[in-house]
Structures
1.
Amino acid sequence: MRLMTFNLRFANPADGPNEWEFRKDLVVEVIGQHLPDLLGTQEGTVPQLHYLEEHLAGYLPLTAHRRVDPTCQYPTIFYRGDRFEVEESREFWLSETPQVHRSLSWGSAFPRMVTYGRFREKGRAASFYFINTHLDHISAAARREGARMIREFFLPLKLPMILAGDFNEPPDDPVYRELIRAGSPLQDTWRQVHEAGQEATTQHGFDGRPRGSRIDWILTAPPFVVRRAAIVTDNRERRYPSDHFPYQAEVEY
């Protein structure tokens, strides 16, 4: 099963030649080249998400549960409709009032959300959660508390799970330690298949030159076994689909 997390970069006119209108076809092209079975996107505005829904052949958006607000940037799940049944889909805000629309806490610069679905692959009995989020880029406290909320909500459910997103922190920082800790079944797909010390970067400035660290992750819990994990650096004559490299992993279960 192929997984991908992809920060789209929101539609910002200040990006000039890298604004959404000039790269949206490339986003679709890159996804189509790698064909993830489950895709988690971040920063998508409503028009961006509508464009992907219309142009990603074979994919369905997990949005039936959503209260659509044109002021929001949504973490969103797309899935292969021919491969999965959806048993449940929901989302909540990463705040002290998670059911209050656009609520934020702990100094978060923006409202942050986690969205998830319980999926079952057609022809198989087992179901699992695919979870997608985007933690705050300013407040370390908001990131840490958001990670704690995710851990405390999902781990007691005792189902296999995949957690993807832009966590806005490097591995081994507080968010990572909140999720990958003693007693947690979650594992880092990258470190499952790469040697210790062999790290990567998922950010760049639309120019393909890596900067920062690996802040986009895919974490899995058993029975998922990681077979491959890679940073996607696809481009068209040095034009890139986003200021983040998509990150993909292949798992078996």
2.
Amino acid sequence: MKLNAIDIFSNWAKSGKDERMASAHKDSVKEILSFVLKSYTKPFSLIDAGCGNGWVIRDVLSNSLCSKAIGIDGSFEMIKKAKSIDPNGEYYCSDLIDWRPKFKVDVVHSMEVFYYFKNPLDIVKHIVKNWIKPKGLLIMGIDHYVGNPNSYSWPKDLNVHMTLLSTMDWVKIFAESGLSNCRSWKVNQKENKPGTLVIAGKLVEVN
């Protein structure tokens, strides 16, 4: 029987592996957030979907243009750790597919999360419909994708479901969810490593 991804993350929070995971993703997320910050000249709000121990929230709030940042994660242990590090931060523990923010935001960011869903289209549609303001941005980074063979063994290694899709599959999912200007690129590319796949799309303004 395959494990639940939330249980795996909870165990990582207890063992301290969450900090190593954050360190491993830091360079990729830095490039992704740099793209976000270049896209906004006015204050913006952000949700980090699958925020773990909240390190992305704390990082983005260090920028004066970020007026509000919210973390959401399905792991109680991860959220517990985020609140212990950042007692004044806004963090929620809930299944992403069930949760809705009180107010929609300008940016939804996610790193290494959406492929844990058996049908990623469901979570992307949910986020586009319920989380993002008109003209808002959804941007994600993943390392498990067709084209990164180093990641192909991860589902077996961790005994957890992961949906393996190509770049075009992900772009199509974003487009089918109602996003426009959907695009893809790679960040943090190194020798013998294809880098983190980034997919982004904007929600057109509703008249």
3.
Amino acid sequence: QDARQALTGADTERAAVSAPDLLGGVWELTPGRYHGLAASTLLLLDEPEGAASEAAQALALGAAAPAGERHLYAELLVRTDQAAAYLRQPDLDGAVGALRPVLDLTADMRTEPLLQQLRRLRRTLTLPQFADTPVARGLQEEIETYDRDALPRQITS
């Protein structure tokens, strides 16, 4: 209940904003980042439809932003949340589409937060509703390879 009230309050505050966030940097809360955080919150509240919708909004706003205002890793993490939301609906094809830009990253761009999110998704793909599907097995293997080949993993090994 508290999280739902916080989302409602944040949405009300966001709607009243008339000037850009002056703080900037990693603490800047652009509209795209706001919707990404809302997606994460709705996912935690087990509202996958709302989470997928908020994630789509975040990604659309990010894509429309000027290059200097985009937050690549925030967008990539939103994609992992969007994939999780799709898996809860269950929409395996939607999850694969959401993850494709993440899975296409070169090894040197794979951060630990992305790896952690993908490990969670990989565990979800082992649930009975997905376990026997070739698409889910292929995605599990791709995530395993992605994790194994990631530069942070190579450095610590």
